[in-house]
Amino acid sequence: MFEDIKWILDNIFGINGDKFVIRKNVSKENIETCNGIAVDDDTTNTCALCVALNDTVFKNNNKPEYYHRNCKCQNTKYELTTVKLDFPISKITKYLFQDKSKKELMKNMGYDISDADFIYKIIADNAKDKFLKGDYLLGVLNCNGQKVNIILELYGKKDKKNKLYRFKTGWTAYPNGCLHNNTPFGGWVKEQK
Ligand SMILES: [Zn+2]
Questions:
Q1: Of 57, 56, 25, whose CA–CA distance to 41 is shortest?
Q2: pLDDT (0 to 100) of residue 190
Q3: pTM reported for the whole predicted model
Q4: How far is the CA of 40 from the centre of ligand 1 (A)?
């Protein structure tokens, strides 16, 4: 019980405000070494979810608050200056502009395959910029890692060039501030801003 309280207090008062922190435990494994599917690390008695969060970097005021009795995870300050992306162009060329429903969706916004490089760059730049500012939404945490949603505001093209679209791009937090792309289009943002 006292250990639980100490853990909570350390994380509220130990590190100030909206700085980046890295979460570490004693395991040598993380979501990347597990190839995207975290499992219990029996050699260090670390549970799968703590393995999934090991070495991940978040703003201290916008980080996963998963912890448990005897949790050995600790957050320490981390200097994050650039966000690395694990985001192959094929997510755009072989999925966004090829999957039947996604392709249709892009077409409705006025975009086609000839815009692939532009769409790739705008999704990538937006994700890097917004993550650095802490402008991201935490999604579910499971053995596939901590999901992170980043909203993209994008004007359409051709007859839709004056229309602003807002949709989520879906990522998983990988070690040391790297974002692994799950989907370039993770659904529309319901108007609420
Ligand atoms: Zn754990």
A1: 25
A2: 85
A3: 0.90
A4: 9
